[in-house]
User: What shape does this take?
Amino acid sequence: MGRAVTVATCALNQWALDFEGNLERIFRSIDIAKSRGARYRLGPELEICGYGCSDHYYESDTLLHSFQVLAKLLESPATEDIICDVGMPVLHRNVRYNCRVIFLNKKILLIRPKISLANAGNYRELRWFTPWSKARHVEEYFLPRIIQEVTGQETVPFGDAVLATKDTCLGAEICEELWAPNSPHIEMGLDGVEIFTNSSGSHHVLRKAHARVDLVNSATAKNGGIYVLANQKGCDGDRLYYDGCAMISMNGETVAQGSQFSLDDVEVLVATLDLEDVRSYRAEISSRNLAASKVKPYSRVKVNFALSCSDDVAVPMCVPIQWRHHSPEEEISLGPACWLWDYLRRSKQSGFLLPLSGGIDSSATACIVYSMCHQVCLAVRNGNADVLADARRIVNDETYVPEDPREFCKRIFTTCYMASENSSQDTCNRAKLLAEQIGSYHINLNIDAAVKAIVGIFSVVTGRMPRFSVYGGSSRENLALQNVQARIRMVLAYLFAQLTLWTRGMPGGLLVLGSANVDESLRGYLTKYDCSSADINPIGGISKTDLKNFIQYCIENFQLTALRSIMSAPPTAELEPLVDGQVAQTDEADMGMTYAELSIYGKLRKIAKAGPYSMFCKLINMWKEICTPREVASKVKHFFRMYSINRHKMTTLTPSYHAENYSPDDNRFDLRPFLYNTTWSWQFRCIDKQVSKLEKKEGISLVEDVD
Assistant: This one.
């Protein structure tokens, strides 16, 4: 009858401008799809060149090499007898488009340009591409000679069209179009398209995966149909981790789920589904059928090919499954770990060095590296030859097999506790015990000699000796003495990263890991060019609250008992003198706000788009049970003062794993000035007036100015 169609989608760990590696991974996915009976194969967005090419899209080389890769795909026997849908940039009439190129048996069937471009948050597609704004319009595209020589075609259809095979009709969406309020699948479905495809370049954000899954399932719940989604996976050269989750859905239910986090460079999902299930599902939706009778038709590209076979009565069909979502703690354990592995192997370095202070942030970073070691050992145990080859190259041992995470950790991870006269024995012990439990190569050192030398130079030149405030010094002296310690630790971290393996008779260098969380960066509670300055930071997009929950997860799942005392200790920078041998300085007291408050400020500032006045208006309701309007005003003002005074630090922020939508990353996500009028005079005056009105309304007499 020709009703059982077999389709394949994939998640590929593509790398920007790695045309050779990208081609190899595309070929692998096609081979797997064909071996499992698929007649159609979908790949991620811009998979030929890699999604994260950024301003390299302007270069003619990127277009040229993309067509060279396409030619290799077209001429290969591996792509015969399967419809291949690949992504690449295409220049049409001197306008650059983000396209799908769909081909079969050395013939290009359709080039479909992206209609809705992603241009918010981390995405800047309008910088490089133009959206195709001609709905249901198709033009002739003149192929470059390199492609004409393979296909024998001079022109091919270019535009908003669908494919009509012998047995069904397919329509393409590209990433953002699924999220748009007027998604193409709505009109395509009304026009009889039964299979929708979506090639994505969607990155990981904590607690986001369910939104993508819900959108895919809802796309076919109202309109019926089969929805096939492919996605990029891994780190393709910047702060984002693309989290896979390739999936296939039919009539509102998931039938195939790909992994969100894994070290597999190529993952292929294949599903066999009954087209009659789509047709019967649609038959009883009268509102859909009435709308379908009035829809403007799409141009159909006829394809002399079927996704089914004539004798398919006994072919087993896929059935709905329940999607399993990771908890946020699992996401933190897996996502940054996979990102670190990609960065390590692709940077050709030999491991990581982490200044381990014995506090929550650096301990969480250490746990993520330990989780990465777990993932490497698991992948090798499951037969992943790519991971094994990478691990052997990293440790410089062609016979090595990583089996024990602690043993592998010892080889590739160095931790360093940098004590000063202001450090407590408690944090030293915590760092040492955690290092023992995860297996890292641990170094203890003291920075006092370096601090005294630096301060001594200043004293010789100026004739003045700065003092801590507890010894009668000013706040300026106090801060300067703290910053000297912090910055010396950064210098020593890079020195030990370059030479530690040399001292051990091993080749290579280490990447320095930072461990400033998203809340501290937002507040600016860090020293510019201290240990927050590193090569990469796996927790820079994660809140303190989530990190605490992650630490608890590691206690339970990795049996890291050393974390218990770290969890119970108050966060402290340990940069001021001890009092009776005990820490007197705490982070929250220094900041003048709690980490919980910081998370709220961050979400209101970035996600809710709130300035000082709007934030105050929202918080007087949110905190009405615990704070007066005057207290809320004081808190909001303090936050914005500190945020704006320290915003300049974001310009040098270490590249961080992006995991939270209120990240203050200055590079491309949170574009703001770094020189503010920190008095916020107009904005704060509006707050003052509102406080006065509220207090008069409540019968409270004003006796002092609002802070």
Summary: Residues 592-701 form one domain.
